[in-house]
Every structure is written in C-alpha cells, then in structure tokens.
Amino acid sequence: MGLITGLLTLPLAPVRSTAWLAERIQEQAEAELYDEGAMQEQLMQLEAQHAAGEIDDEELAAAEDALLERLVEARGLGGEERDGRLD
Fold first, then answer.
1. pLDDT digits over 43-61, tens only?
2. CB contact set of 1 (below 8 Å; sequence gap of 6+)
C-alpha cells in the first residue's frame, strides 16, 4: 500500500480492525462449537445426568440429537475445508 493510499484510507482503519476482530471471534466460536472432543464430553455428561435421574428419556434423546447433528455438520465442514472448496 502506497503512502497516499495509506493516508487516504487511514480513517477506515477502525472499521477494518473491527471487521478483522469480528472474523477472528467468529472463527473461534465455530471452532468451539464444532469441537468433537467437547461434543463427546457433552454426550458423556448427558448419559451421567440420565443415569442420575436428572433428565428423562425425552430430554436425553433431544439433546443427543442436537449434539449428533452438530457432529455431522462439523465433520461435513471439516471435509469441505480439507478439499479446499466450499459447496
């Protein structure tokens, strides 16, 4: 970037840095949301809660379905990233 371009776009620096920060936050949130280890841990916690009688069969099934959908989605996203293309 040239000196003139840098000076002319200087007022936009806060906007660019805010957009960059928002992208990093989104990437981190997606990484945590689709972390397979965390999902497996949550499944084990659900089983423990069910065994302790804290949740019933319907709640367990609904929570397991939600976690399994995230797991399938995470594996689908991982495959697209490995292929280098997005569908």
1. 899 999 999 999 999 999 9
2. 9
